[in-house]
Write a structure and sequence with these properties.
Elements lengths: L6 E4 L6 H12 L2 E4 H7 L3 E5 L4 E4 L1 H13 L3 E4 L13 E6 L2 H10 L4 H12 L2 H9 L5 E5 L3 H21 L2 E2 L5 E2 L1
Parallel strand pairs: 1-5, 1-6, 2-5, 6-7
Antiparallel strand pairs: 3-4, 8-9
Helix pairs in contact: 1-7, 4-5
């Protein structure tokens, strides 16, 4: 039994996933797991896509690379997709959203190629990642949060931190003899 929850923070590029995850990791003691970094560090890809300026992810290798770490719990998984993670791994899915003008500015500042920028805007407009989360997980664990401003981000982090604390209260660790431990 895990002693800490696993959380996926997902959304289109530019919604603030990494910033949320880094602050949450500091405040909760959970580990920020950057899927992009794992893809690079553990060669969980099939090469570089020049048109999109991104790695072609090998999902099977990625899941193999993540399985042991996630099994122990305590992970905040940071990635733009969530449907590949087995439901048994995940306790909360946070889908971050931003309005399209804010997203456009953020992606333009990252110098995204126009085609990639437009596809990400379209995905945000059409709720692609929110629908993916709802289709892949129990609706009770999927939360949609807006991340347009620093105040919204701070509120989101407070809310997720409170959820983590409640999860720990509701799921006390159990020692081998069945006694609860903290």
């Amino acid at each position: 039994m895990r002693t800490n929850p696993n959380i996926v923070v997902t959304g289109t590029p530019g919604v603030g996933k990494t910033t949320h995850c880094e602050i949450l990791a500091e405040r909760t003691g959970l580990r920020h797991v950057s899927v992009n970094q794992i893809v690079k560090d553990k060669d969980c890809h099939e090469g570089w896509d020049k048109e999109y300026h991104s790695w072609l992810v090998d999902e099977d290798r990625l899941l193999d690379a993540l399985e042991e770490e996630v099994a122990d719990g305590g992970c905040i998984i940071d990635w733009h997709a969530c449907d590949l993670f087995p439901e048994r791994w995940i306790d909360l899915v946070v889908v971050l959203r931003v309005d399209t003008s804010t997203l456009y500015d953020r992606l333009k500042a990252r110098k995204y190629p126009e085609k990639k920028l437009q596809e990400n805007l379209d995905a945000e407009i059409m709720d692609v990642l929110l629908q993916e989360a709802r289709d892949s997980y129990n609706e009770k664990i999927v939360v949609e949060l807006t991340s347009n401003t620093t105040d919204e981000m701070d509120s989101n982090i407070d809310r997720i931190e409170a959820w983590v604390n409640q999860w720990k209260k509701d799921n006390p660790s159990t020692s081998e003899n069945g006694d609860e431990t903290n």
